[in-house]
């Protein structure tokens, strides 16, 4: 076609025809941008959670506003349990996290599910599924669970990672996020613990390859500790459990004029029941067979309703 023919072609083109072409191209362009964006955000290589080049710091806010402590968590070394390979979970509570102690075993399978064992003899539990569906339910105890409500993304080290939003229908104020490659915003091994304990767990910082990759915007440090400032945690409840922290025994004191039976249940960090006893009057329990750590207890009435829950610290 000659130059003059091109000129006549465009001159004879109506405005309406130009508009149709523009709208069509505009829609195609938006579709391409959307597809590329979704691929960019969620189509990249999956970031595994269980890796030995990571460290998490987790803030624990007690029922008393003056109580704060920090746990550092990392995974290290392989161990085989019942023909299954796990990484060791190590925990440190000192500021420079020099004193690590064994705190369980963890593994991640090819379907992006993560399993945790609190100790050798315990059964493993599913603590993450990074390929869930809307309304999937994750139970932490018989009574406490979270439901998947939606998905989002977050930019970490110039890469977008999937975010799974969860909430508790019976307690809408309790929400949680699972971040791909990082874990729960309550701490990598503490998902659901706010439900179990009533305390507040928060992921403070996340390091990958010795680089700070995530920090909670509400804080400017990765370590807080006011443990020991308050000797006992007071709770507005007819039940008094003392001493707390405890060493060899705990005492449960309450006024039971109706002689109604209550049930005391003690759970470890993993949500596994450590002991269960029926109580009618004030009593004491031996702790000689229970290791040092932070535990959580509930007290239920004769109709199996939870009427009291709190944290118990054991230090021998």
Order of helices and strands: HHEEEEEEEEEEEHEEEEEEEEE
Q: pLDDT under 50 segments (min length 5)? A: 1-16, 27-42, 228-235
Number of separate helices:
3
Write out the strand line-up for the largest beta sheet, numbering strands in chain order.
6-5-4-3-2-1-12-13
The separation of the N and C termini measures 94 Å
**Cα-based radius of gyration, to the nearest Å:** 27 Å
Residues in helices, as a percent range: 10-25%
Mean pLDDT: 80
- Which oligomerization state do the chains in this entry correspond to? single chain
> What kind of sheet is the major sheet?
8 strands, antiparallel
The overall number of domains is 2
User: What portion of residues belong to β-strands?
Assistant: 35-45%
For the secondary structure, the number of strands is 20
CA-based shape: globular
Given the helix and strand composition, which structural class is it? Answer: mainly beta
Concise description?
The protein is mainly beta. It is 14% helix and 45% strand.
Please characterize this protein's 3D structure.
The protein is mainly beta. It has two domains: 54-215, no CATH class; 240-314, Immunoglobulin-like (Sandwich), CATH 2.60.40. 14% of the residues lie in helices and 45% in strands. The chain contains three helices and 20 strands. The chain has helices spanning 3-12, 15-42, 193-197; strands at residues 54-61, 68-81, 84-92, 101-108, 113-117, 125-129, 137-139, 145-156, 159-168, 171-179, 183-184, 200-208, 211-215, 240-242, 249-253, 262-267, 273-279, 283-286, 293-300, 306-314. The protein is globular. The chain starts with a helix and ends with a strand. The model is unreliable at 1-16, 27-42 and 228-235 (pLDDT under 50).
């Amino acid at each position: 076609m000659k130059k003059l023919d091109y000129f006549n072609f465009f001159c004879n083109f109506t405005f309406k025809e130009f508009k149709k072409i523009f709208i069509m191209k505009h829609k195609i362009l938006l579709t391409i941008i959307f597809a590329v964006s979704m691929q960019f955000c969620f189509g990249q290589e999956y970031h595994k959670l269980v890796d030995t080049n990571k460290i998490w710091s987790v803030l624990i806010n007690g029922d008393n506003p003056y109580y704060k402590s920090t746990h550092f968590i990392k995974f290290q070394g392989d161990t085989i349990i019942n023909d299954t390979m796990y990484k060791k979970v190590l925990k440190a509570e000192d500021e420079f996290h020099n004193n690590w102690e064994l705190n369980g075993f963890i593994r991640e399978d090819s379907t992006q599910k993560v399993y945790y064992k609190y100790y050798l003899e315990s059964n493993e539990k599913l603590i993450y599924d990074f390929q869930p569906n809307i309304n999937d339910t994750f139970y932490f105890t018989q009574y406490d669970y979270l439901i998947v409500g939606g998905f989002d993304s977050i930019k970490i080290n110039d890469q977008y990672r999937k975010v799974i939003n969860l909430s508790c229908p019976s307690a809408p104020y309790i929400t949680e996020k699972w971040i791909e490659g990082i874990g729960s915003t309550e701490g990598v091994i503490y998902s659901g613990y706010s439900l179990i304990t009533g305390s507040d767990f928060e992921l403070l910082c996340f390091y990958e390859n010795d680089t700070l990759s995530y920090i909670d915007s509400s804080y400017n440090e990765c370590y807080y500790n006011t443990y020991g400032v308050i000797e006992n945690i007071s709770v507005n409840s007819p039940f008094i459990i003392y001493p707390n922290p405890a060493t060899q025994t705990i005492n449960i004191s309450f006024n039971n004029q109706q002689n109604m039976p209550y049930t005391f249940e003690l759970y470890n960090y993993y949500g596994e029941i450590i002991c269960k006893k029926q109580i009618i009057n004030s009593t004491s329990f031996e702790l000689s067979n229970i290791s040092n750590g932070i535990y959580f207890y509930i007290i239920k009435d004769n109709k199996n309703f939870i009427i009291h829950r709190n944290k118990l610290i054991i230090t021998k």
